[in-house]
Amino acid sequence: MADRFKNFIDGKWVEAKSGKTFDNRNPANRNDLIGLFPASGQQDVDDAVRSAKHAFAKWRLVPAPKRGEMLYRVGELLRQHKEEIARIMTREMGKILKETRGDVQEGIDTAFYTAGEGRRLFGETTASELPDKFAMSVRAPVGVCALITPWNFPMAIPTWKLFPALLCGNTAVLKPAEDTPHTAVKLLEILEEAGIPVGVVNLVHGRGEEAGAALARHSDVKLVSFTGSAAVGREIASACGENLKRVSLELGGKNAQIVMEDADLNLALEGALWGAFGTTGQRCTATSRLILHRDIKPKLTDMLVARAEKIKIGDGLDESVETGPLINQPAREKVHRYVQIGKQEGARLLTGGEIYEAGKWIDGYFYRPTIFDQVTPSMRIAQEEIFGPVLSIIEVKSFEEAIEVLNGTAYGLSSSIYTNDVARAFRAMRDIEAGITYVNGPTIGAEVHLPFGGVKDTGNGHREAGTTVYDIFSEWKSIYVDYSGKLQKAQIDNAE
Ligand code: NAD
């Protein structure tokens, strides 16, 4: 008998009203059924939003430091359950244990960072232009927030959204990705154990087109925070636009690492391998283009191919494995399709480019680390997000050309340059069009206390993490207190 998991609505674990479920399977072994999860629809979403709306009336009045203390407790519980959650996560989404431990750690870091913010949550006081008048701005909560999240960071991303949302006094409905519902159940169990009041956080599982779309369109949802693909982001933004609803979007990337001729090649090699093939290339910040100065290109390419061919592929629960499977069959088909496109476009396949099926790994969605050479900047494999272990090498003759190539896509999330020339490093920091730039580090590795997000088609101008996330989850309210005892007319010409 398969385990049956539930939604969490109004403090209770409940099935979908329709009784329908969907399967969650291990991508390293599709015969391993993790469990059945509710395939929720409009009614379930309505119940969850009603519960969050009801809870908002009280939660918004809990002092922010108290809300922060509860989040601190959540952080401590996450720490206690870190190993258990990491194992659940690896089983349901495939990345290796070191990475799933890191994913949970980001949730812990976010909890502690956000808890401290409960004693800041600063507004401003400022001078008034009139005598005997006081002026200040404060942050107010927005209301019920819909949090719609992807599968590649099943703990980090929900917590990046949820903890700041709660700290600001909002309540929430979380709709996690269909491929990682079990991690979300663990998070809700921990929130319940930490004593987050009934209705403040609700969990609704289900398909994006059904549960996700119903949530984004719900009239009592005041804010949608979405992380996922650009295609779905556009749909959600349109739905929110029609209803003048606040929406924050964190979307795809086509991130590049530049290596200049003066760089430390061993360092650049480690960065490229980790950036391109960590999480099997399934990070929004993954390195999918490697822009190499022609003087070092032959040497670094040889080093890279030799190492990529040695990467140990397998089940992420095996500690010796370096890269796990892709998330599901459509993802593997998509990666393989892009490999064929790359070949047709005239790129040269140096290694990989095929499904990995060896021994006991025939039942998972494995794919070999793949490297293309002779890629030109306009090829589809250099422009479109593949979201798999496929790296495209582009040769350039100068620093200026490297920056132009890096900037030449629709996305602008993460970027990296390896150089020992300090002037070039500063020019790159200034001229690269991206939300994140690393110097002598790979494109992956964000820290929770700095803003996270991107420019161009990567989003709509918001930044998660850092202190910037509070601008997503709060409304600014300006307050004027007049203690002059008479009507002082502002906004007319008082100058005499
Ligand atoms: P996805 O867009 O397919 O799904 C994301 C979430 O949206 C899931 O919960 C899904 O069920 C839901 N959804 C799907 N259709 C919907 C609809 N019509 N209405 C409402 N909700 C809907 O993305 P994915 O495959 O889960 O994740 C991979 C994508 O996420 C990549 O493009 C990656 O770059 C991006 N990503 C971005 C960031 C970032 O911070 N910028 C971080 C991680 C992943």
Structure described in brief:
Helices cover about 40% and strands about 20% of the residues.
How does this structure look, described?
It is built from 15 helices and 21 strands. The model has no long low-confidence stretch (mean pLDDT 97). Helix 1 (42-59) crosses helix 7 (208-217). The N and C termini lie far apart (84 Å). The chain is globular. By secondary structure, it is of the alpha/beta class. A hairpin with a 2-residue loop joins strand 3 (21-26) and strand 4. The chain has a seven-stranded mixed β-sheet with strand order 14-15-16-13-12-18-19, with helices on both faces. 38% of the residues lie in helices and 22% in strands. The protein has two domains: 7-251 and 459-478, 3-Layer(aba) Sandwich (Aldehyde Dehydrogenase, Chain A, domain 1), CATH 3.40.605.10; 255-439, 3-Layer(aba) Sandwich (Aldehyde Dehydrogenase, Chain A, domain 2), CATH 3.40.309.10. Bound molecules: nicotinamide-adenine-dinucleotide (NAD). The site of nicotinamide-adenine-dinucleotide (NAD) has 29 residues, from helix 7 and helix 8.
